[in-house]
Design goal:
This protein starts with a helix and ends with a strand. The chain has helices spanning about 1-20, 25-30, 35-65, 135-160, 165-190; strands at about 70-80, 80-95, 100, 110-115, 120, 125-130, 195, 200-205, 215, 225, 230-240, 250-255, 260-270, 280-285, 300-315, 320, 325-335, 340-345, 350-355, 355-360, 370, 380-390. By secondary structure, the protein is an alpha+beta fold. The protein has four domains: about 1-65, no CATH class; about 70-85 and about 310-390, Beta Barrel (conserved putative lor/sdh protein from methanococcus maripaludis s2 fold), CATH 2.40.420.20; about 90-100 and about 225-310, Elongation Factor Tu (Ef-tu), domain 3, CATH 2.40.30.170; about 105-225, OB fold (Dihydrolipoamide Acetyltransferase, E2P), CATH 2.40.50.100. The strands form four sheets. Strands 16-17-18-22-1-21 form a six-stranded mixed β-sheet, with no helix packed on it. Belongs to the membrane fusion protein (MFP) (TC 8.A.1) family. GO terms for molecular function: efflux transmembrane transporter activity.
Length: about 400
């Protein structure tokens, strides 16, 4: 093959020598102008391009005469740099901070319920009333006593200002008024607890206790109220990912029960690691555009814990291991479009994900590697490439 290439070059030189005598390179370099130098350079470049094209044509034709049956047949993969992302998969639950059971703060009979299940309510809206057992009547009496006590105190205060009467009479009147005034305020506060108000705007999801039943503080749930406007997925992540998953990390969330998926960001990472399971919690907000989301839906999260820009990535299935456990593959030094030499490449590997693995050392982004048929070849074997894949 090389012999024919030399003949081609020699023929060209002979044909040139038979024509008009031209200046030698030495003469042009010694005495020529800049224009002559540039012209000669361009002539040589043109000749070289023509020669290279002719050599390739000859090489391609010569391949047809070679005994290709002695070459192993392989498929090759042309590498190209790409962004490589690794994800850790965890299970989570849909939840909201506004999903609570409402308990009474007052004991008695549930007298009135002002809402029904499914109603949208506003924060502070009256939901129910517990019978106060006559305490409202007691409050009226106490208010009347307070007015009388106030009148006595104000009269005693005027007399004291005019230096009439004793100081003890003034102090007794003042103390009596303050006591009854405080008692009225306490009774008002107590009676206010007999009315149940909405703690936030949301929906009455469930009425748990029927009207007419006796209820007790902290023991008898009356309503479940929730707000679906601020939903998020909460999940536990093993502690060995601390530092790799942080606020802003990409999260691919799948809600299998409703057939919905979305790409979000980790909005919160807990500062505490649980002693019981050695996990920390992360939160991913759910967009309002996702319909049919309900608390306690199971979610699958793929959390991005590693990203490498312009990485060299190869399929895991082309890797091999030697006796010492060292990973390797074969790169190809191509002689022409279909024949190449297999170069043995030991590799230093990084993370793997979904059938791909990052190569940290051992390959270049412009390399061609053996994708199929590598197990039938050895170092420096000549191979015939049947098919090229692009990475």
């Amino acid at each position: 093959m090389k012999y024919l290439s030399y003949l081609t070059i020699l023929s060209l030189l002979i044909s040139v020598s038979c024509g008009p005598k031209e200046k030698s390179i030495e003469d042009i370099v010694e005495n020529g102008s800049k224009a002559e130098l540039n012209q000669k350079r361009e002539e040589l470049n043109t000749s070289m391009r023509k020669l290279n094209s002719q050599i390739k044509t000859l090489d391609k034709k010569l391949v047809e005469f070679e005994d290709s049956s002695k070459y192993a047949l392989v498929e090759a993969l042309s590498l190209a740099p790409k962004d490589f992302n690794h994800y850790v998969t965890v299970q989570g639950d849909v939840t909201t901070d506004q999903n609570i059971m409402i308990y009474p703060q007052f004991s008695g009979v549930l007298k009135d319920i002002y809402v029904k299940e499914g109603d949208q309510v506003k924060k502070g809206q009256k939901l129910a009333k517990i019978d106060d057992g006559g305490q409202s009547s007691q409050l009226k009496e106490m208010k009347a006593q307070r007015e009388l006590s106030k009148t006595r105190f104000e009269r005693q205060e005027r007399l004291w200002d005019e230096n009439i009467g004793s100081e003890i009479q003034y102090l007794e009147a003042k103390t009596a008024f303050e006591q009854i005034d405080n008692a009225v305020d306490q009774m008002k506060s107590q009676l206010n607890k007999s009315v149940i108000y909405a703690p936030f705007s949301g929906k009455i999801d469930e009425i748990i206790t029927d009207q007419g039943q006796v209820v007790s503080p902290g023991q008898t749930p009356i309503f479940r109220i929730l707000n679906l406007g601020d939903m998020y997925v909460s999940a536990n992540v093993p502690e060995n990912y601390v530092g790799n998953i942080r606020e802003g990390s990409e999260a691919i969330v799948t809600l299998g029960a409703i057939g919905k998926s979305f790409v979000g960001k980790v909005s919160q990472v807990s500062s505490n690691i649980s002693e019981s399971n050695r996990n920390f919690r992360v939160r991913v907000s759910i967009p309002d555009s996702i319909d049919f989301v309900k608390p306690n839906l199971i979610a699958t999260l793929k959390l991005n814990d590693y990203t490498s820009k312009q990485a060299i990535v190869i399929p895991e299935n082309i890797l091999q291991e030697n006796a010492s456990g060292q990973s390797f593959t074969f790169s190809l030094q191509m002689e022409n479009d279909s024949i190449g030499i297999a170069n043995f490449q030991e590799l230093k590997l990084g993370k793997n994900y979904q059938g791909e693995i990052e190569v940290l050392e051992g390959l270049k982004s412009t390399d061609i590697v053996v994708a199929e048929g590598a197990r039938t070849i050895k170092k420096n074997d000549k191979v015939r490439v049947l098919n090229f894949q692009k990475k």
